[in-house]
Amino acid sequence: MHARFVSQISRITRSLLIAITMALLTTTGAIAADRSALERSARSAYQKLIDKVPAAKALSGDALAVLVFPKITKAGLVIGGQYGDGVLFKGGKVAGYYNTAGASYGLQAGAQRYGYAMFFMNERALNALTANEGFEVGVGPSVVVVDQGMGKSLTTTTANDDIYAFIFSQKGLMAGIGLQGNKVTKLKP
Asked: Which of 114, 135, 113 lies closest to 125, judged by CA?
């Protein structure tokens, strides 16, 4: 009975992984094909973030650039994945288009959509993104994920890290959101 149960879980996991991959690839093509819609969505998400979160508003004045991923899709059952496209804004103008992707394995189940914005606070951090056509979060410049508690106390005088990330617009049910291990890659023009 145990072997049959493990076999069923294995089939379900494979089926879910295939479905996630197909959904992510379909979403990728649709978003990448219409960059103006992506830009509008990213600008809107960014504006809502700085309107609602005082720390994001404070950092926006000092950040050299902001990378906004308005919609990330994450799903998994033991094996999971996440993907989304975003826009890098520098001085209010589009400086590039990027995607973020990640895979995970472990105790997880569910599906979720969310967005995040990364505030690049110095040239070293921004160069890590632009010089290498992207980077892996957690390798290279320090990335601090700002939660609600930190968001209330963070000011430009206490902000000493390379990159600050704000997660927003969470919808769906899935335990835990993290950015560690996500790969951010520049999209080709």
From this structure: 135
